[in-house]
Amino acid sequence: MMPGKAAGSRGLRRKAQLEMIGIAIVVVLVVLGFLFVLKAISGPPSETHSGFVRSHITQDLLNTVSISDADCGGIDMTELLKACAERATVDCAPDPCQAFITYMEDILEQTLGEQRLAYRLRAYISNSPPATSSESIQENGNQIGSIFITARGCNQTSIQRGYYSVGEKPGLLVIPTNVGDLKVMLEICSRVY
């Protein structure tokens, strides 16, 4: 064997080894970059993001429900609530308050309930305090309906005892009626640990 060929062959091997090491480093960097992107995409939402979503979900839900068809002769949910507050009847529901409660229980369970969120919905005339239990809405001593929906223990007692807190801004819908403004408030409760 000639001395020149052996030296050239070692140089080629060394060059090939360096190229292989370079390729291995590039592959490792690409894999690490991919894992970083995957972690960023699949991670849980930040507290800021989930707080933002939670603070808007209640208002968005109330806004959507207010213009939804009540399956009641073409009236929407706002008209059904007005009838409830004014103690009026509608053709399809002798008790518009109960019709609203039934509709809202279904909607809330299909939206917030599916996400396992505790919530409470209260409706009250603006010059009277919001209901804290299944008490009736009162205006000048007249009962105008009972609207209080709660789920997963989000009630006044559990909030006063410190089991739940209502930290986010509640959704609020104001409906003018003949007996005063009817306020509908939807709150999401958070478990206190």
Order of helices and strands: HHHHEEEEHEEE
What is the rounded distance between the termini?
A: 80 Å
Number of domains: 2
Instruction: Find the count of extended strands (DSSP E, 2+ residues).
Output: 7
What is the percentage of strand-forming residues?
A: 15-25%
The major beta sheet can be summarized as: 5 strands, antiparallel
Q: What is the overall silhouette?
A: elongated
Overall pLDDT: 78
Radius of gyration: 31 Å
Find the structural class using helix and strand composition.
alpha+beta
| Overall helicity | 40-55%
Low-pLDDT residue intervals, each spanning 5 or more residues: 134-146
The DSSP helix count reads: 5
Describe the protein's topology.
Elements lengths: L2 H40 L4 H20 L10 H9 L10 H18 L4 E8 L12 E2 L2 E2 L4 E4 L4 H5 L3 E2 L5 E7 L2 E12 L2
Antiparallel strand pairs: 1-4, 1-7, 2-3, 5-7, 6-7
